[in-house]
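INPUT
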Amino acid sequence: MATLELRNVNKTYGSGLPDTLKNIELKIGSGEFLILVGPSGCGKSTLMNCIAGLEQISGGAILVDDADISGMSPKDRDIAMVFQSYALYPTMNVRDNIAFGLKIRKMTPAAIDEEVARVAKLLQIEHLLGRKPGQLSGGQQQRVAMGRALARRPRIYLFDEPLSNLDAKLRVEMRTEIKLMHQRLKTTTVYVTHDQIEAMTLGDKVAVMKDGLIQQFGTPQQIYNDPANLFVASFIGSPPMNFIPLRLQRQEGRLLALLDSGQGRCELPLGIGEAGLEAREVILGIRPEQISLAAVEGNGLPSIRAQVQVTEPTGPDTLVFVTLNQTKVCCRLAPEFAPQVGESLSLQFDPARVLLFDAETGERLGRGRAPVDTVGTDNIAQFRGR
Amino acid sequence: MSTIAVLNKASPLDALQRWLPRLVLAPSMLIVLVGFYGYILWTFVLSFTNSSFMPSYKWVGLAQYARLMDNDRWWVASKNLLLFGGMFIGISLVVGVLLAVLLDQRIRREGFIRTVYLYPMALSMIVTGTAWKWLLNPGLGLDKMLRDWGWEGFRLDWLVDPDRVVYCLVIAAVWQASGFVMALFLAGLRGVDPSIIRAAQVDGASLPTIYLRIVLPSLRPVFFSALMILAHIAIKSFDLVAAMTAGGPGYASDLPAMFMYSFTFSRGQMGMGSASAILMLGAILAILVPYLYSELRSKRHE
Amino acid sequence: MSSSLAARRPSLSRLAVYATLIAACLVYLVPLIVMLLTSFKSPDDIRTGNLLSWPEVITGIGWVKAWDAVGGYFWNSVKITVPAVLISTLVGALNGYVLSMWRFRGSQLFFGLLLFGCFLPFQTVLLPASFTLGKLGLASTTTGLVLVHIVYGLAFTTLFFRNYYTSVPQALVQAARLDGAGFFTIFGRILLPMSIPIIMVCLIWQFTQIWNDFLFGVVFASGDAQPITVALNNLVNTSTGAKEYNVDMAAAMIAGLPTLLVYVLAGKYFLRGLTAGAVKG
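OUTPUT
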């Protein structure tokens, strides 16, 4: 299995048009699972096509096992791809679909048969070998598409939103299967998705993209707990992070955020003491699961009374919406608490978990100080449990 | 390292693959440039020369066009085109739309009926012209049949009547092409959202009203497609004239396409013939360009 | 849209609809019936009877004479049509393939230029084309005519395939490229097998156009090499002696039967060809 490195890759479609990819820098080791995630139009599919050689990069280099493959044609790169639409050859049966690439590479018929059998067993599609793609269900087609890629035993696997066309239940099943397969085969993989749950559960490394730029590259935990900017913070996490725009106050040398729920006020002391911060418009970020009901005995955490506007019982939790500083704020509470609309709750915040963003640039302020502690791991665990 | 060097170099086969698409398209590109545009240009140039039996390249300016304007036969041909074209397009549209609307009423054996309406399109205009020439034969054709059936004194000699011969062309052309209009509109009708119809019915509209006021207006694009193609057929009409009347009697049923052929190849007037061809091109462009322009504009609005 | 005019009982309006449709059927069929009837009559019969009268004696003399007159040219038409149809279809398919799957700078412009060819009034190219054929030594030959039909059929055949291939997902070609297939392999092993419907449309359309053509035939191949349409016209319109309408009609049937047969057997492809051209237009 190979290492993959993207050095300063950029791509433009023509003079005068804005760059589709800007200065992409990524590096993954052998056997790692990289996720490219971002909204539509962020350039993730273009980047994938460039890695595959289906499109040419305008600048920079793509290196596989430290060798520059930027000038090579797709068939020489030893890369296999699973497409969103599966792209199975409609006039051939499943066996021929899987064998096509092997035939082109002039493998002997015996070797081809062996390979097809191995892959079919792995993906449990042996009973489908004689059928044509038109006779298969979506999930079956997806497996055949994976089989086609696996049979080639390439150095790198590319997946372009392979689960997007499946229904929700099948998507969850296939996601687990892909994860299991990766654990077994230890294949170097690049996986594109717009679904942030897939990004968090499948990846060893995640690159969040927007407008052709990598917003942040790191492990899922890093992305979740230590987002580099507003976009990353808002993109990852469901329900999304709450953002409260406000202006900080400085009292006795410490910075405070003032929260007002209409029924009460509280002060959040924030650790960073940079001069001049109180003059700036900032955005306070706090995840719904980081707001909890205030403990009966005071535990020193700042708390505030707020009126419940909306409740959404989801099964595993209850989402409660309140208003703070005229902004709608979502709190994730345990399902046993089923507050009524209009009821007043006492909510508490942990200032250590709160994030600050510059309102203009979206950059995270005071980055690098967020601790990766047990609280953080629990949050990831609750994703994995789903 | 040698491995890097090997992996870096694109094989010569790769270069071929990159150029293959262009190579494959190249012959057609050549054909288009020469056979379409090059030839048009050539004809254009010829129209400014004094070519007669053989091409010559002596420049005479707009003399050929002037001769064209002075030529009574050309005027007859042009007027005929307007008359023929107008009637042909108009009647074909009406007949075609009517048949399509009727066929849309969940008719039994619809497929068979459609096949009958459309089969004339599969015939050559020569065959059509020959058949209708016989049908409209003054003395032995339809008029004799009707007389035999009891309608005494019925006469149908349009084919030899200079004032009415164009109608014969129209009849044959409509017979050939109206099935096509029917097919286009039937396909269009099938694409109409049935809930619009139901809404109108609930509103109390009668079926004819629904068709006239709601359905047909929504088929404007189909209407324009049909118009374009019928106009194209009309302007290019040569086979039909050659078979039915050869432009006669005299040149009463002449059309520009016939005129061009006649003057260029029979009468050795290449210059004038070329000029007439260029004018025909102008006529087509006059219809095509506004249509394309409006299509492009509506696309940009979407 | 399928709301019917009435319920169970055939209402007056429904009867009127059927009546109109059937009457129209007759109008469309009568010329064909007349042609057939006339072709099997003797010249005397034609003079004494009328268009729809049943023959006194059914005789095939018209057909025999017609075949004598135009039969040879029937084979000319075959010699011209078959190669022209096959070659223009193949080139159109390749062009369509390139234009939809391997776009490059200028390919869209080329397509636009090509498209105009669908509207071209051929009168504008007749003279230069005949000069060229003369220079190539192909004047008045079936080969020359084949060449002309290929050149001027390219616009439609390319249009058919290009439009068809735009509905084939690009991912299919990309997957094949990753599998290692080259330009022609992808065309031959993947796209062509999928193209059967449009190949049928193209073949039938081209067959009908080229077999039925008269203009190119009369300009470029008068004489021995002329197609049957030209022969038919000569037969019908040269008045030497008494007109033999039975021969004329039989000859018209001979000229028209091939395309008519193709239409009856494969009409839906014919229709698709007509509407495909119209939709783009």
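end of record. The interface with chain A takes residues 169, 171-172, 174-182, 185, 189-190, 193-194 of chain C (CB under 8 Å).
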